[in-house]
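Field log, afternoon session.

UNIT: design team B
ACTIVITY: writing a sequence onto a fixed backbone
BACKBONE:
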């Protein structure tokens, strides 16, 4: 979870910095997009983990029974 999103953020930051340093607005924008994608992926992963934890909690309490 954290490794992929952290790596994506780092790659995005590097791409953005390279774009800014060379005056390549497109590459800088791609870097910002990569960072946003990594952040969204991390958020989705955390939400899925919370949902699974809630499911386990409910099943332990017996709420998951039909």
């Amino acid at each position: 979870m954290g490794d992929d999103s952290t790596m994506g953020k780092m790659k995005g930051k590097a791409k953005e910095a390279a774009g800014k340093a060379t005056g390549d607005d497109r590459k800088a924008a791609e870097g910002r997009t990569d960072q946003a994608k990594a952040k969204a992926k991390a958020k989705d992963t955390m939400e899925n983990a919370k949902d699974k934890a809630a499911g386990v909690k409910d099943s332990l309490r017996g709420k998951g029974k039909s």
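LOG NOTE: The chain has a mean pLDDT of 87.
NEXT ACTIVITY: expression trials, pending approval
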